[in-house]
Amino acid sequence: MxxxxxxxxxxxxxxxxxxxxxxxxxxxxxxxxxxxxxxxxDVMRCPMCLNANLSGSDAPIAADLRTEIYKQIxxxxxxxxxxxxMRARYGDFIMYQPPLKIGTAMLWFGPIVLLVLGFFIxxxxxxxxxxxxxxxxxxxDELQKLNVLLQDSKEQTR
Amino acid sequence: MQISNRTKLFIPxxxxxxxxxxxxxxxxxxxxxxxxxLINRPLPTxxxxxxxxxxxxxxxxxxxxxxxLVNVWATWCPPCHAEHPYLLEISQRESGVTFxxxxxxxxxxxxxxxxxxxxxPFKLSLVDLDGSLGIDLGxxxxxxxxxxxxxxxxxxxxxxxIDNKVWAEVFxxxxxxxx
Amino acid sequence: MIPELxxxxxxxxxxxxxxxxxxxxxxxxxxxxxxxxLARPLSSGLWVFxxxxxxxxxxxFLHDDFSVAYIARNSNTLLPVYYKFAAVWGAHEGSLLLWIxxxxxxxxxxSLLSRNLPLDMLARVLSxxxxxxxxxxxxxxFTSNPFDRLLLNTPSEGTDLNPLLQDFGLTVHPPFLYMGxxxxxxxxxxxxxxxxxxxxxxxxxxxxxxxxxxxxxFLTVGIALGSWWAYYELGWGGWWFWDPVENVSFMPxxxxxxxxxxxxxxxxxxxxxxxxxxxxxxxxxxxxxxAFIVRSGLITSVHxxxxxxxxxxxxxxxxxxxxxxxLFLYALRAPVVSGTSNYxxxxxxxxxxxxxxxxxxxxxxxxxGTLYPLITEALYGEANKYSVGPPYFNIVFLPLMSLLAVCLxxxxxxxxxxxxxxxxxxKVGKLAFxxxxxxxxxxxxxxxxxxxxxxxxxxxxxxxxxxxxKDILDKTANKADRLSGLRGLGxxxxxxxxxxxxxxxxxxxxxxxxxxxxxxxxxxxxxxxITIGKYEFRFEGVVERPGPNxxxxxxxxxxxxxxxxxxxxxxxxxxxxxxxxxxxEADIQVGFFRDLFTALGDPRGxxxxxxxxxxxxxxxxxxxxxxxxxxxxxxxxLDRRYRSRKVVRSxxxxxxxxxSLRPALES
Lengths: 158, 179, 667
Prior knowledge:
heterotrimer, A: mainly alpha, 6 helices, disordered N terminus, C: alpha+beta, 9-stranded antiparallel sheet, 19 helices, 9 strands, globular
């Protein structure tokens, strides 16, 4: 099996250019804290970048904010407190996940409303369709006559 | 309400027209324009050492009772160098506003020398060594200037260099308005 | 001289495009065969001139003609030759020229490959394509001409192509992407021609299908290439960020997928005609919307072209013209639902309709999310602008795709018009249980822990694959010899199953890599190692290595697998002398079942360095699966039914799929 994997492996060595976030070795009190840190820096936006999150940005302010988040996690603050801290200073703009407010109701409920609407339309179509199939279908003979008639009229209007 | 089937077919066209209106509006906006969460909110409380005298502290309380322009700058920031002569000139010319300098994540000695050599437009100068005041102000990076009114409320955040043109077009009307 | 030639070629192309708009269209209304047949040579001529102008631009790039402003801004004498060629489409003006070249190429292809299309239909289709081409040529000539010259102060050296673009990705991603985007213009033109002609029937659907499949396949590859490029270029393991530019390429793809399925229903059963036409218009409209959003400065993105809003205004006007007029034409001329349809609750029609609903809702959601910051800014003011990013899109998109994956397999087992639910359950019930069992058990055995996300995804993927297998078995069960049964199934069928299989592979890739990737940033001294799974990464130190225009700190990391030496990786940090840049060069070892990624950080103390190590299982499957989907699309086009055949008097078969006679003309 390992040999098969080796054969199947397509090994391309790619040296990549990149401009990604500084690689930081940070010590955390627990794996949960580490996971929280990564989640927070993934969900927050870099204030001065062209659409990048804190984990993917090498801007100085992004590094500062990452440090701030790290310090607050170490100090025992909760996720909500840290998010509130950032929101108070940078506005809702800094969160990539928009809050659930009246202003964002259309955003969060839109998809489900559209989906339900779609299924109502589907149901309506099915009812109409079932009504159609209940009508008497033309007999084969009648259909053949109809075909001939229609073909003729088609010739005439050409 | 019964909408005829033919009328329903107009829904996509109408939807597209509405969306075009939105796009037209969007073209008029600048997506990189800065927004600040602190507009019309009080200046964050802070207390930081004076740039020229470590023993003294400067607090946010001192920025009340007049119009303060809090300018965040650093010697390692090239646009701040470009901005400096304008600040000097404007601070000498305009007596109605007080300039406060926040030296941001900088080498204090280099900052002192910079101001000594090139002139000091700031009535008060303080040091934000670790950038925490910058975070409290919701900054992206120097140079940035915050306009604080008499009650200690932030009224405007300007990102970028202040030159004579910017001063005349943006700050003069604003200051007139908040007086 | 050459740039002038190129400029002139574009102007001639515009003239031909205008003629292509007017002459065949007028001919189709006055029944003038000569005028209608001019459509073919006009589109050939248009294509020739576009090729000529593109060649002129490419030639000028390759010869470092910095008197052309566009070249001075995007090239450099030291740029390698293949990047000089790719730089032709490295920025707005040149990529627009590429766009129009590809548009003329699709037009030319339509003129070549439509032998069995009635002449008036062909004339109208090519006329509409001419309209789109003319519109874009006007935009190019008047606002974004790549041949503009800097004759007074010709620089001796160019500014250089953006370093991030100096990569293999630039040579492949935009061409494939544009082939897809622009390819939907063919389906669009067929739709408009059908609306004008008033002939919206199964024949129309059959003509449109191969073109739609082709465009869709190209777009699939184009998007996959873009994602893969971002993955290894940006190097932090991400491959999709729901960036506005990514979203606008994804929306035409989703609608295109819906269109493919809807066309199948319209062709086979003659229903959903108005809906299919609307989808065809929508797919290309979304492509145009994408072009507008990326080039107008409307959104913030690192991918966006740097263009001023003034050009954006002209582009918006073009959009209004093309999309607005087509949607109004649709409202006025599309057949109102006739009510002759009769399909049952578990029929294939219903399941394909469900497919359409899900895909269209997904598209609408992405559109909403992408434009939402703008909407809130318009309604609530600048200060209350929201950001909508990956968390939102992932939360709303993944459930929709899961629903799609479940319905997909049901759909392939249903019959047209009517399927009994009992029969359906009899076929797939067992498979459902097996999928659930396998999906839960396999990850448990391999990783010895419970991971809901991975299990759910695996259940869906296995469900799709098992159903594919069962369907093939069922379809070949009655044949005397299974092999001949397989041969009799047709490429169209295999294309479908291959594409669905590819979808299952993509699901696996996305969910397994999201759930099982491991990333570590650690400080390492020489000789220290870290173990992730069955891989051990041993840091062997850093040496200085000189390069052509940089010096590098090059690390050596010895990778061991299951205790044995496996491979060596060399991530670097490069210091470019000229601009004083520091670039981190990661080393990514791509494998079919996992990617290994290492990058070098900063030094700490003596001989200790910070190193980043990723192990990303199955990430390659994301792009491999996309490739399979595209291959499925191409396979379907190669089916015998689309090859040239004698023109039949009535293009509509007299009997429908169930063998019963049906009227020859439908409203």
